[in-house]
Structure formats: C-alpha cells, structure tokens
Write the structure tokens for this entry.
Amino acid sequence: MTTDENRPPGGSLADQMTRFLDRVPPRLDGRRGATLDHVGVIERIGDGIAIVSGLPQAKFNELLEFPGGVRGLVFNLDETEIGCLLLGESGALGAGDEVRATGEVIRAPVGEELVGRVVTPLGDPLDGKGRINAARFDPIEREAPPILHRSAVEVPLLTGIKSIDAMIPLGRGQRELIVGDRATGKTAIAVDAIVNQRDTGVLCIYVAIGQKTSSVARLVQDLERHGAMAYTLVVVASADDPPGMQYVAPYAACTMGEYFMCQGRDVFVVYDDLTKQAYAYREISLLLRRPPGREAYPGDIFYIHSRLLERATRLSDEHGGGSLTALPIVETQAKNLSAYIPTNLISITDGQIVLDSDLFDMGLRPAIDIGKSVSRVGGKTQLKSMRKAAGSLKLDYAQFGELELFTRFGASVEKETAAKIERGRRIREVLKQPRLDPMPIDCQVALLIAANEGVLDALPVERVDEFERLVRGRMRDLESDIMRRVREGEAMTPEDTAALATATRALMRELQ
C-alpha cells in the first residue's frame, strides 16, 4: 500500500496524468489525445480545389489552414481523403504541403465596422481603407428563423422606380427575383433601389458574384456619388476569385445582414447574381466527382439557393422586429424562363420582376415585362395612396400593349379604342425612368393620377418627360398638405384626387 510518505512528488500518478491530459488540446471529436491527426497532406491540387489525406476527424464545412495563409473549406468527406474548396490564391501550393485543421466552421465578420466598406466574403478589405477590426464572427451557414418568430410582410420597401412601386410593390422581408437576359438592366434596378433607401434607416448589402472588378468599381463609385455608401456594405467575390469564394459569398453576406436584423434593423440584400454562384457550385461539384444531373448541375442545386433565401424574413416584435429583404438576380439565355436555375428561383421567391430584351432595345427603361412580372405579397405592402393612384394600372397597361400590337398591322379601330391607345402611350412615357434617378413616392402618385385622369391626353408624347420634371420641381409647393399625407401612407379621398388632378392641369397650362 502506498502511504503519504512514499507517494511520488506532485501527488498521485493519477493526479499527474490528469494534469498532463488537461494540457493536451482536445481532438476534433471532443476527446483528449495527441494532435498528430490534426495535420494532413495535400495529395492533389488545382482549379480551386485540393484533395487532402490524413485528416480523418475533419468535419463538413470545417475551415482548414494551408501554407501561406490560404484557407480552405471541407466540402467532400470520403473514406481515405477529403475534398476542399480553396478560398484564396493557391499558386504557391503543391502536393505534399501540410494542411492543418482548425476545428472551426467558416465564419464571417459582423458589426457596424463593415458599413460603408468593400470586403471579401471573409471580411478582408478591398477598398484600401484599412483593416476591419470586427469584434464578432458568425457562421455563414445558419438556420432560417422559425415560422413562429416571423411576422407578416406588410411594411413597404420603396424602390423609387415608378413601374415597380405602382405595379409590383415590394415589402420589407420579401424575396423578389429579378430575371432577364444579359444587359437588360437587372443591376440598374437593384442599385436604384439601394440609392432610394437614403434617409429611410434601411441598411443595404450588395453582393457581387463572378463580376469583373472594373464593373464593381464603377458601381461603388455610383453609390459614393449618390451618398449611398454611408449605409451600404459591398461584398465582392469577383470573376478572378476561386469558385469557392463565389460559392460562399451570398451566405457570408446574409450572415452580415442577419446580425443587423437581429438588432431590430431593416436590411436590404442584393445577390448579383445567383447564376454565377450556381456555375461555381457546378464547377466545384464536377471537379470533386459529384454525380451530375440536369444540365450537369448536382442534385442539390435547389437546396443551395433555398437555404439562402429562406433566411430572408421579417421578425415579429417579440423577436426584435427587424427584417431582411432579399433581391436575388438571375440571368436567362434567350428569354428562357423555363431553364433549370430560373425555375428553381421562381419557385423559391415571392415574385419576380422580368426584364425583356426587346423592350430594352425599344428604349423602354426599365424594360419590365408587366405581363410576366408579379409580386405575390401584392397590395399588402403598398401605400394606400399609391394603391389608389395605381388602381387598375397594371391591367390597363397590359391591354394597351395588346391593342398597340394589333394596330401595327394597319387595322382600323374605333374612336374609344384609339383614345385608349393614345393614353397608354403617355402612361408608357410616364413609366420610363433613367438610371440612378429614383423618384419620391409623392411625385409618383401625382404623375400617375395625372395620367389616369387624362391630364396628359393633350400633351405630345415627346413632352411627357418635360412635364415630369416640372412636377418634380413644383408639386410639393402646390399641394404640400396632400403630398405630406401621401408620404405618410394615408388613404386618399376623392377630394384629394381631384385636387391633385387640378394642380397638375395648372402645371400643364404652363407647358402649352
């Protein structure tokens, strides 16, 4: 029997072993042991991925450290090796280099320090304004808020774009898809909506996925010129970045926005565009030998977008009352809305804004196809004054398009139909809008009432824009009380409508 006199110095052997094990870092499975299994070796590397052996305890979505500060993301788990996405320049890496497991999932920085900055998905600055000292990092993959934590989407998100605010209204917490061919003005709509959030308290996040660096630089300059960078965060995964960065960019940006949503703030996120993310995911999956499916995409391509967009919501007052509104963008080929990725996103979102290349070529900007565009949240989010002014505008405008097409074949029409066509042409001119020129809601309401009440019928079509400029400069002075109630969202009485029509007729006489 061991007595106190002959006990080893420092306590019993069991006590010494316990103190020794306490100094050994825990393994990834939570047990104590040697750390040799935390170091692996690169077997193959190239095209933005790396095959690593020697990390049997690695977990899916775990962050790995490669030589030179390059980070990687565990993506495939096989019996003898793992497939990793590289999140940085890998030109200096090669087979045989060591890889270290971190035991951490990939995280993105969050907080006020990010507002007004241009960053990578991992929070590295791209604007030359110095390092971002974020105090908190959250996982980029998070569960969407439970249904019981959500509230109905009823608060409007005004874009400043007449055709959208009048006929395709958006709400805070909504997911509205922008879809169209290349170079039809998809990004322009998103940027105009960001510029219009000035002085509204809405924080904006723009995510550039797979775009040229020069294009992103011009966009940032536009935002700075209009004072929008003061409340905007730009997350960039450019075309030069590895596909892994383009894949994680939307999730990282969503995490950055969720931080503010949980603080009770309203956040507006633009994903430009998810087609590029799908391309990157397909490239990654094929390189890692995942089974291809329709159009060579893996079978879970729907899931990568649904788990992102489901995180957009409006929280109930009991859970902070914040909101995250998502405006994903997707590109089509030759107007093919039935392609795989567009149909997936149409089924996930709460509506779509469809842009038509033929309308764009005709000079109609924004080139929105009203017949195919819809907001499934609808009038619940629309200001009462705008709902009164817009009325049956969407239906009337669609009918005008059919009537105008019919008359192009030289068919004779009766006097009433000809009058509808002439009024429709003036409404079309009213709905035209240049880039980076969002219109206040009160001016929108005044213009739409003027068009609906026939004030513009005697005005030549080519002078409609001149009348619009006059309204923007003078309307608030003419009917300031009505304009105030319009901005506050109060319902308009018939007397208000008549007063606005009279005021616009007085402006019309100045042009004649």
Q: What stands out?
A: Confidence is low (pLDDT under 50) at residues 1-9, 16-21, 23-36. The longest strand covers residues 323-331. Residues 243-262 form the longest helix (20 residues).
